[in-house]
Design a protein that fits this description.
This protein is an alpha+beta fold. It is built from 17 helices and twelve strands. Among the domains are: 162 residues, no CATH class; 64 residues, no CATH class. The strands form four sheets. Strands 2, 6, 7, 8, 9 and 10 form a six-stranded antiparallel sheet that branches. A two-stranded antiparallel sheet has the order 1-3.
Length: 462
């Protein structure tokens, strides 16, 4: 494995991480290599690539570490979390800039607590497909570079399962919880170093703490609006899973809705519906408020900064509303306006009333098949007439509303088959999800689940 390594995070103050090599696995075996992404990163792999992607060999120039961070988990403060099963090999600089190279499932670290530091096929292959699908859908996200089987058995509640490691890449792994970790310890040295790292990685135009916070709030609002447009539910929007650069990170109990339920949840650990689909904007704003609090030690006039930071965070709602309006206006082929907003609200209300499939309803606007999905609703004829009168640009709708998403039941079927030793469905889905706006010739991939296939809960997979 050859790459242009340049490890800026490992050069930060020592309290920000622990130096940690991946724990070698028993028998590394290739599952998937993302050759296209490797080329984008300027990485050259040989036939022995599974050894590097499993952690059995360290690439020359890498400097492996496990990062420290804290976080609010379902609203409850946890002062010490950190990379409990992940090792950041380092950073590479390639044609598309600087990217982290991280192994998940790489063994125990100083932050593992009671965990084994490993992962099994399910969460590894699921994150691989969903993160790459999100990228193809145009959503800022971590990405998958490789997946490797370990030849080891992992014990989970389901019983013994085959072990795996995923290599994911990201513009950084700096979380709201990373800032919280050092703020809680009154470590202004590390906090300042982290701020400068985050600015350099994500917001190079920012020259002050205030400008950094403003940029983070705006990108977070834009990201969540994009999630809403796809019916995507992150499922565990804790501050340690909230990225300051506005990318989607940590695909644990995430899910895409089938039928539209505004307050839908899937996560087995979200018993109160804190991170339901409709709550995501409010929780993202709450996370930004925690970031603002963590940044206060870096300000000279605390009281004035509290007032200004409060104003910035309260501005999340206006930014989100604009982004949301723009996302959904595009989804129905119109420009944002008050009337467009009324049409969007009316469409979503009809979908919720009859439990219509979210993805198929929006796709049907492009194909002219809306009646098949919403025609049973008494308001549909009037809505459709008003929408047509508004002059939608239907030609663009097929490039906004996907034909295929990584539906929950397909992910579960893929995992079951992979655990049984058959990776065919994984590979076929991977190819289909690369082109989500194109017509898919596999009806099974387009269709909602049959009643016996419905997935009601998703799990963290750790």
């Amino acid at each position: 494995m050859q790459a242009n390594w340049n490890n800026s995070y490992a050069a930060l103050p020592a309290q920000m991480f622990t130096r940690q090599a991946p724990v070698p696995v028993a028998a590394p075996k290739a599952l998937m290599l993302n050759a296209e992404h490797a080329e984008e990163l300027g990485i050259t792999f040989g036939e022995d690539w599974p050894l590097f992607m499993a952690g059995n060999q360290i690439p020359q120039g890498a400097d492996p570490i496990a990062q420290a961070y804290a976080g609010h988990q379902f609203g409850h403060w946890n002062p010490q979390l950190g990379d409990g099963r992940a090792v950041l090999l380092g950073e590479v600089i390639g044609p598309q800039g600087r990217f982290d190279i991280q192994l998940k499932g790489a063994g125990r670290t100083a932050w593992s607590r009671n965990g084994d530091g490993r992962a099994w096929y399910g969460p590894v292959l699921r994150e691989y497909l969903i993160s790459e699908a999100m990228h193809a859908l145009g959503i800022p996200t971590t990405r998958a570079l490789a997946a490797v089987a370990t030849g080891e058995t992992i014990l989970r509640e389901q019983g013994p399962l085959p072990g795996a490691v995923i290599c994911r890449t990201a513009s950084s792994h700096i979380r709201v919880g990373t800032f919280q970790y050092f703020a809680a310890r009154d470590d202004t040295q590390a906090l300042e170093a982290l701020l400068q790292q985050a600015i350099e990685r994500h917001y190079q135009k920012a020259q002050t703490v205030e400008q950094f916070l403003s940029a983070a709030v705006a990108t977070q609002a834009r990201l969540v609006a994009q999630w809403m447009g796809l019916g995507f539910i992150h499922g565990v929007m804790n501050t340690d899973n909230s990225h300051v650069g506005g990318i989607t990170i940590d695909y644990g109990p995430c899910a895409f809705m089938d039928e539209f339920v505004p307050m839908k949840t899937f996560s087995s650990i979200d018993r109160q519906g804190r991170y339901a689909y409709g709550n995501q904007p409010n929780l993202a704003a709450w996370n930004m408020a925690q970031l603002a609090t963590a940044l206060l030690p870096l300000t000279e006039d605390r009281e004035a900064s509290i007032a200004r930071f409060t104003e910035i965070v309260q501005g999340f709602g206006d930014i989100f509303d604009r982004e949301y309006a723009a996302v959904f206006a595009r989804k129905i082929g119109l420009t944002p306006s008050k009337e467009t907003g009324v049409l969007v609200d009316g469409l979503l209300r009809m979908m919720a009333n009859i439990g219509a499939d979210y993805t198929l309803c929006f796709r049907a606007l492009a194909t002219g098949e809306s009646h098949a999905h919403l025609g049973a609703h008494p308001d549909f004829a009037d809505w459709h007439a008003r929408w047509q009168a508004a002059g939608p640009t239907q030609g663009a709708l097929a490039q906004v509303n996907p034909a295929i998403i990584p539906r929950n039941h397909l992910m579960e079927a893929m995992i079951s088959e992979a655990v049984a030793g058959d990776m065919q469905l994984f590979h076929v889905l991977h190819e289909a999800l690369k082109a989500p706006f194109s017509h898919c010739d596999t009806p099974r991939f387009n269709a909602p689940p049959d009643p016996q296939e419905v997935v009601t809960q998703t799990f963290c997979g750790t």
